[in-house]
Write a structure and sequence with these properties.
The complex is a heterodimer. By secondary structure, chain A is of the alpha/beta class. Chain A has a domain at 9-111 and 182-262: P-loop containing nucleotide triphosphate hydrolases (Rossmann fold). In chain A, 36% of the residues lie in helices and 25% in strands. Chain A has eleven helices and ten strands. Chain A has helices at residues 9-16, 61-68, 98-104, 119-129, 136-146, 150-153, 166-179, 196-209, 222-228, 246-251, 256-262; strands at residues 21-32, 35-46, 50-54, 78-86, 89-90, 105-108, 184-188, 214-218, 231-236, 239-245. In chain A, the strands form two sheets. Chain A has a six-stranded mixed sheet with strand order 6-7-8-3-9-10, with helices on both faces. In chain A, strands 2-1-4-5 form a four-stranded antiparallel sheet. In chain A, a hairpin with a 2-residue loop joins β9 and β10 (239-245). The longest helix of chain A is centred in the middle third of the chain and has 14 residues, at 166-179. The mean pLDDT of chain A is 89. By secondary structure, chain B is mainly α. Chain B has two domains: 56-168, no CATH class; 184-423, MetI-like (MetI-like fold). Chain B has a three-stranded antiparallel sheet with strand order 2-1-3. Chain B has helices spanning 2-13, 22-58, 70-73, 84-94, 97-106, 114-126, 136-141, 143-153, 167-171, 184-215, 220-233, 237-251, 253-256, 275-299, 303-311, 316-344, 348-353, 373-381, 386-423, and strands spanning 59-65, 129-133, 158-163. In chain B, 68% of the residues lie in helices and 4% in strands. Classes of the chains: A alpha/beta, B mainly alpha. At the A-B interface, α3, β6, α4 and α7 of A face α15, α16 and α19 of B.
Chain lengths: 267, 424
Amino acid sequence: MKRDSATDPFDLAVETGETPWALETKGMSVDYGAFRAVKDLTMGFEKRQVTAIIGPSGCGKSTALRAFNRMNDLIPGCRTEGQVLFHGADVYAPEVDPVRVRRWIGMVFQKPNPFPKSVRENILWGARINGYSGDEEELVEGSLRQAALWDEVKDKLDKSALALSGGQQQRLCIARAVAVKPEILLMDEPTSALDPISTSRIEDLLEELKARYTIIIVTHNMQQAGRVSDRTAFMLLGDLIEYAPTKELFLNPKDERTENYISGRFG
Amino acid sequence: MSAAKSRAATDARGDGSFLPNLGKRQAYGRRWAAAFAAATIAAVLVLGALVASIVNDAFGLVAMEYTVDPATLAPGGDIEKLSDAELVAALEGNLKSRRLRALGNEKPLAERERADLLALVEDEVIGWEVVETFSLAESLLGRAKVDAFMAAEHPEAKLVFRSWVNARFLGSSQSATAIDAGVRSALIGTLMTILITVATAFPIGIAAAIWLEEYAKDNRWNRFIRVNIYNLAGVPSIIYGMLGLAIFVRALEPITSGAAFGAVADPTGANGRTILSAGLTLALLVLPVIIINAQEAFRAVPRTLRESGYAVGATKWQVVWHHVLPASFDRVLTGAIVAVSRAIGETAPLVVVGASTFLTQDPTSVFSKFTTLPIQIYQWTARPQEDFHNIAAAAILVLLVLMLSLNAFAIILRNRLRAKKRFA
């Protein structure tokens, strides 16, 4: 099955399909073997907003996030049902190649995981394999500036990325993700391995990034969700309990379980 | 309040159910440490004994007798000091006229190289013959005993110290007399065989490991294959010899003998018992080990590295090629090289495949008959004559040096790849 980007139905949908949501799930369930980690999730993510998914450990928030760009396909025994609609096209439709999906829906992980290559190569690799034909220097500088990292690394672009500090590495991972010009950035607890100063730099960065990208962030840290997100979803045991504008959810939770969680009674 | 105070006091001392035992625990640990050290010492001693016994045989005094006393040819018997003309004269003066004519027909004496002339004088005129050999220990520590023995048994013989590993040993082929025999054909045979093994087992093994580890689905069939590769790694090597005999020597004879390519190098007919068959048999032998090693190396690549590749829209192949392979190649390669360096020492499968036991010609192509160092060693040690045991020890030293240099190469390569990986 050889399909060019221009004729691929999924890419075509990305180009032409317009929906009110950046990403929308309909009855999405994720199973690990016999265990249902995410149950019948139906929700939409607003364009160019930061949406936080919070909940206690094991509530399925990371699993749900990884289902949005088919990252779960890499885990043996993991099955997804239902639909995830991107520009109206289901990313789980049988004819869709998950590689195409991930090119539009990028991801930043819990632990900074730059490639063991130079800073420059970290940015360029993803762009090159996706057929980037523009100016490479421009892309490197532009991506690093978007990740607020340019000033710190502009003199060591050819040094190994592993020589950077943890916070810098994580911002490099963000730069790497935006270098392929995605529409959505999924962030799986991006600051949980970082110190408070690096964390606050990344939180500030999210504010700038949302001008260009739709951001979905999974976090353990309720204060962080409160600080960075426009909308917040609370998940518990695989169920979506409450989904509302962040202020509303924190100040006026409708569900008792949400209230218990945000007031620190469990979790 | 007093209750709380008394509880705090008991907590500090323990409530009496914890007995003081640190001294005992530490002593226990020290006993184990001593046992581990003893095991290490035992291993080192055994290895030391092995090396010592080989060196003991590879060097030592040799009693030699001659047909013509070298002292009559040159002052002090040192024929190295003779000029080329004098060497020719010595040959003409001592050899039978028929032998001289034969030599002259090959190449006139006057046109021969000096080294050639020296060898001729040594072999044909003086005619050295080993009558007795002594081990290194006897030569160094029991010299008086050696001298007494020599005076009683061989008063005519000349006693010289000989290193059985020498340039001539490395440069000459098999011969009926130990002093003339060398390992050249076996060494070339070993190197060519291993080259074929490496050229086939490396790519096939690494490719199979990539498929099994990265591509194969986790179903019953693939689990069955995986388990059996592990089992194959434990199959005795002689069984691989039988397999090689059946497949390469018999079934694929037209290919392994070179007949299919019209390239039968050996008119006497190797019948498929060629270097190619031997190399492929050893490749079968090391294949499971290389696959397992490589699989483990790939498995050690952290999932986060793969995910970071997929997350920017890479295909599986791009992740494998750009990330998994570079991150694991040092391990894959060292595992494979260590497996091959074990294969160099394999004897049993090659005996079954049909190594030649007496080969005086160097192999000229992969379709030649072959012998290898371990086969040569095996064959020499099986001989009753003392001096063949000496050259067997010398050949073992050559084999050990070959293996050690291969292992050293593996280590250097790994370190260089690691350094590169760290910077990348």
